[in-house]
User: Which sequence fits this backbone?
């Protein structure tokens, strides 16, 4: 068990783009039909944060389209979709506010019944009301399309940090208003009565928070049965007992791994006892909801060794995703080119990026029962010279039989977008 008091930092790619309705894709200088010199589409698609429904038939995700124009990246507004694996159809959720107001959402995750999604909403323009400004947590009811904000930007939340002074480590605490923080990766508890998410005192003022490094992050809990007024719950920082400091790493995503346990990828940060913990080279941690304590999930004693990295990075896994019972845990190697599965106390290789014909894998997500695995190909490149990424398809791996199939994604999304656009145009036309 880890000792010391906690300060949780996060190296997290918070996609706080503004989202869009199904027909609201606007780019400067590039149309959906334009292609590059080699015939590839000029406008590409990026899909992130897949999350299975409890029955394994659907997975929710966020997505946006992007293009390079005049040495700059233009991104569409972020949206949320649901993929039906049985019918191979995509449904794009209708946002609760007009995207033209500056509203967006991302990081969807199902509740235990499969009837609700929790996600992060983003609204950072002058059109946003005080209570929903910034990044907030909300719940979408799939049966009724009803959306409810859970957090309120006007509420305060208290968090802490460790500072190194002449007298040694010193713990500090300060309040932050909900409008000044960045929230990410919410998930429901196993009973559906709470939501856990990460939160940062990150910078504000940009419509895109992209690869936000070295920001102070905390693990927070929202008690849905404890109403606080106009909105449902206030952020409460957990890990209140003695713990070491931990940095969320990789994708930063949380995953349930048992009825009362979460797992996330991470490494050691500054905090009491961090030197002893650092010697173990941990790469993932469990959080016990019942005891409010951290423990090491994977370290150098039970993780794959990767000699391609420097000595301080040879034990590292990312994009961790666990079955609900914790019996199977999927993860990527540090270079994101090997897909691992932890089962019965050890890791084994499921596939590699080379086997899939790509240079790396973006993310993996395992189904609640541990029988299926979604594998996403590379996402957005970092420069026009590296403009090779797109997501025409993804892979679905049956973890029991070992059979893998490629399923379409981009074509289904474009078809859904075009269909919605035509429907709206017909409704607005005479007759």
Assistant:
């Amino acid at each position: 068990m880890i000792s010391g008091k906690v300060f949780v930092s996060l190296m997290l790619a918070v996609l706080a783009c503004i989202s869009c309705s199904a027909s609201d894709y606007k780019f400067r200088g590039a149309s959906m039909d334009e292609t590059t010199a080699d015939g590839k589409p000029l406008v590409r698609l990026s899909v992130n944060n897949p999350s299975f429904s409890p029955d394994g038939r659907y997975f929710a995700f966020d997505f946006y389209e992007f293009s390079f124009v005049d040495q700059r990246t233009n991104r569409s507004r972020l949206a949320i979709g649901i993929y039906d694996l049985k019918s191979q159809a995509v449904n794009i959720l209708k946002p609760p506010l007009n995207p033209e107001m500056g509203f967006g959402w991302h990081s969807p995750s199902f509740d235990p019944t499969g009837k609700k999604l929790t996600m992060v909403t983003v609204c950072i323009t002058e059109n946003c009301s005080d209570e929903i400004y910034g990044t907030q947590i909300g719940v979408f009811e799939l049966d009724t399309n009803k959306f409810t904000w859970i957090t309120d930007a006007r509420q305060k939340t208290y968090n802490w940090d460790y500072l190194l002074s002449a007298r040694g480590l010193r713990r500090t605490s300060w309040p932050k208003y909900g409008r000044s923080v960045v929230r990410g990766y919410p998930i429901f508890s196993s009973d559906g009565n709470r939501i856990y998410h990460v939160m940062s005192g990150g910078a504000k003022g940009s419509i895109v928070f992209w690869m936000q490094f070295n920001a102070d992050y905390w693990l927070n809990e929202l008690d849905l049965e404890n109403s606080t007024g106009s909105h449902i719950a206030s952020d409460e920082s957990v890990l209140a007992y003695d713990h070491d400091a931990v940095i969320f790493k990789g994708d930063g995503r949380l995953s349930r791994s048992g009825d009362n346990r979460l797992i996330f990828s991470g490494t050691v940060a500054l905090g009491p006892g961090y030197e002893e913990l650092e010697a173990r080279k941990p790469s993932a941690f469990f959080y016990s909801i019942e005891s409010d304590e951290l423990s090491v999930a994977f370290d150098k004693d039970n993780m794959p060794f990767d000699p391609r990295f420097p000595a301080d990075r040879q034990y590292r896994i990312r994009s961790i995703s666990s079955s609900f019972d914790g019996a199977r845990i999927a993860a990527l190697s540090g270079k994101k080119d090997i897909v691992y599965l932890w089962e019965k106390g050890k890791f084994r290789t499921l596939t590699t990026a080379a086997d899939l014909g790509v240079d790396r894998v973006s993310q993996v997500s395992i189904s609640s029962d541990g029988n299926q695995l979604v594998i996403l190909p590379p996402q957005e490149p970092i420069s026009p010279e590296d403009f090779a990424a797109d997501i025409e398809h993804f892979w679905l791996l049956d973890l029991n039989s070992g059979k893998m199939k490629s399923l379409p994604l981009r074509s289904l999304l474009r078809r859904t977008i075009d269909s919605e656009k035509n429907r709206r145009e017909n409704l607005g036309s005479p007759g």
In short: The longest helix spans residues 410-428.
